[in-house]
Amino acid sequence: MVKELDKVDVVTIGAGWTGGIVAAETAKEGLKVKSLERGAYRDTTDYQHVHDELKYAQRYELMQDTSVETLTFRNKRDELALPVRRLGSFLPGSGRGGAGTHWNGQTDRYMPYDFEIKSMTEEKYGKEKLGIDSGLRYRDWGVTFDEMEKYYDKFEKTAGVSGEENPLGEERSSPYPNPPMLKTKSLRLFEKAANELNLHPIMMPSANMSQSYENPDGEVLNQCQYCAFCERFACEYDAKATPDITVLKTAEKTGNFDIRYNSNVTEIVTDKDDDKKVTGVKFIDTITREEYFQPADVVVLTSFLFNNYKLLRVSDIGEQYDPETEKGALGSNYCYQTGLGATGFFDEQFNTFMGAGALGMILDDFNGDNFDHEGLDFIHGGSIHFTQTGARPILSNTVRKDTPEWGEEFKEESIKNFTRTLEVYSMAHTGPHKDHYLDLDDTYKDAFGNSQVMLTYNWTEQDNARNKYLTERCKEIVEKMGAKHIDVSNDDIGAYDIVPYQSTNISGGTPMGTDPENSVVNTWLQHWDRDNLFVAGSSTFVHNSGNNPTGTVGAIAYRCAEGIIKYHKNNQRLED
User: Fold this and answer.
1) How is 455-473 classified by DSSP, letter by letter?
2) Whole-structure pTM over 0.85, yes or no?
3) What CATH number corresponds to the domain at position 25?
4) Which of 173, 246, 327, 507 could connect to 544 by a Cys-Cys bridge, CB 3.0–4.6 Å?
5) Domain hosting residue 230, numbered range
């Protein structure tokens, strides 16, 4: 029998960055808020031990358990989709803080071009440049960079982002709240080479603290120790901005917020008397296996991309995208990012065993439309990165391409190159394609009886052309840095492979927009079919950019929270 709980004003599904921001902002306004988090409680004291690369980086202690819930994957619609049992291309988090606990801290902004990519491209190059004939389906987001800037600014202050002015960026309403991180020997080498090539390198915007910092909500973060255990790890020193030490603490201090852990939401319930509204959500306590109903005035999906999509689909809310007719929006606009580049082998040593998740330099000379695309067979581009995140002993075995994969020579080369290799790589945009989408796979069920999500995705000709171009730019920088030998990523990246890790930067599935025919939510992240249902996170992105998406995730969440507060006050659908 389903047990009904006391009604709340707002319930969020997930307690990561988006759930935490929505909770903090609405709770500060006096609304009663509850987050349902399927993972467990944890805090800084859980990480104050010897760094364990095997536990966290290899065995994914902070990630989703694929034996409970996963997805199936195929490259093309006519292929058989198979379940993914070892996470590779993306690492969904689980527990307090979600994926925001184990992120690197790279906190970029998207560009004006990203938000208005269709109109800007058509105006400058013509409609044919968008690649419609090849299946690409670009459109504008429905909101502009200028409208989003204040939300970017607010997130950066909450997260204490360390950074410096980007000469290729838009005008900021205020400086970064913290100065940039330390510039190491290897970063200075990259900077010198990039400047000699007339490029514009800057220190990477970083949510690793360059100094002790108190954010506007009164949460204190400590100075980074450059320990090299950021990505896939939580910070034992509260020196990396994460939801659990910022927005979740802020929400809890109001007295209007609590989190229920080990609570897996299985369904969004629509009002029987008013099909334009939802009444709450059903969830299962993963410890006791009891089922509950949590009523709420407003329901907000704030979990990882696949789960946002899945909850809408299994709850029969919205029209599923059909690649044959291209009708429906739910499941559409899935995009990823590619990360190829060039690795230089040097005679001198660098202290690459030290570092931080967002310790690095970045340049946007080949990002968006910052360079002329006339004569190129792709649009957009990518940022070029050089980072010193810390070479850890298990995953850091860089050897030349012609080195055997095991044996004495491999060991010698691995040890020799441990502190003698530097990589320059790109973070490249991908665009929405009519054959890239999410659906449900009824062949495979999760531990709670719902169908698993099925992903259909592959690289496009534009992706290959874009990556070839950016890889050449990376190689030019490594050459200028003085490498004795350079290994370059393959020119043709072939079929998309879900097994190797590239990044967790995925987007789409519940895209935003101004037209319910091609979007799931409006620009306030309010669902078109249910007035009191909101969706936040990268699932609402129309496409991916050439920058890290977390800054945009945070900005979107602040806009969503503002919309929720307006809606709850006036009980009226929001206008774009």
Assistant:
1) EE----HHHHHHHHHHHHH
2) yes
3) 3.50.50.60
4) 507
5) 3-43+58-85+92-570
